[in-house]
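Sat 14:20. Reprocessing the chain from the morning session after the first attempt stalled halfway. Input below, unchanged.
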Amino acid sequence: MDIGATFHVVAVPSDLDAEPVRSFRSFTGDLNRLADWIIGLGITTVAMESTGIYWVPLFEILEARGLDVVLVNARDAKNVPGRKSDVNDAQWIQQLHSYGLLRASFRPEAAIVALRAYLRHRERMLEYAASHVQHMQKALMQMNLQLHHVVSDITGVTGMKILRAIVAGERDPDVLAAHRDVRCKASIATIREALTGNYRPEHVFALRQAIELYDTYQNKLLVCDAEIERSVRALPKDGEGLPPAPTPRSRKTQKNEPSFEIREVLHALLGVDLTQIHGLGPYSALRIVAECGTDMTRWPTSKHFTSWLTLAPGSKISGGKVLSSRTRSSTNRAATLLRLAAVSVGRTSTALGAFFRRLAVRTGKAKAVTATARKIAVLFYNTLRHGAAYVDPGENYYEARYRQRTIENLRRRASALGFVLVEGMPAGAS
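Finished this time. Tokens:
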């Protein structure tokens, strides 16, 4: 099947129908007629390109009819011989599929797909809300109110109290500064100086609307969180009858996390605690699970898993010579989350953090992020697949192992050159 926005071209083996190539519009009735036609021919498996999001309705209809639908990356089905057209595309895909030359793209089970859709929608709403925070900052700058320079987060307790007071008509800096929360690091005097400005009506109007839109998205996020929690709790659980989750590494909650207790819900779902892996918080673990699913048997080994994530080195070899080992570019969302986890773990006093920092010095931060993300992905895979509990050996353990490896390498090089490496000799001694 060649997928389009307004119509789809379908090609079947020429010996099954007198008209083996047909076009169907993308309306639901036409998609059902398409399914009736190919099922009536006795076809059991279908291949289609993943064109935008146009494939989703047809994929879901065919899957609901019991067909084995292979979603193909366009990269694997390109280079159509002859003059390119929709008909040639469909016939070429059908020919490749009949020879078994097309690989199916990964798509988790329906329940995980629904959870993934909710979480991706939540991320978009967070982006929309963030744009209105920028609108608030712009209105404040136009009024020369330096609140966002003295308060780390204007959407925190102190910031929102002051902003709501401003749009309610309060202009006295002393009264506005009195809204300071006790946890705010800026003093009342500093906040008072920052709130002396030019309160022009048009800028206050823009600030008011930005706050209202921000509040709207916050309310919608609460509704979305309820749907996410319902979806997670409805998934088949592997953690029934297991002991409670281990003590969390950190009790600090991250900003913009869902409003329910993610860690306990994930532990009941998976039977393991992914948050024991450094760099993975409850929310990031939930998002990665939503992208990868809970069934790690889809990938035979952790190497297959990291290759799917495009975190493993490439293997472009010709004539026995390695032409390139760089990782492929990809928009894999799980890989992006693991890269973010690698950046955060690089600031910790852990074995992973020591690995990141040493590699960053030697090869640069970009490669260190990829390599550390791959290590976290392997830990994630082994935890879900084999139930392996992660215990951080510590920064000192990694440094000791690194020192031992370096000494062994030096000893081998010295032996190859006819020298003997002696430990503990002071500098300058003969």
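The radius of gyration is 29 Å.
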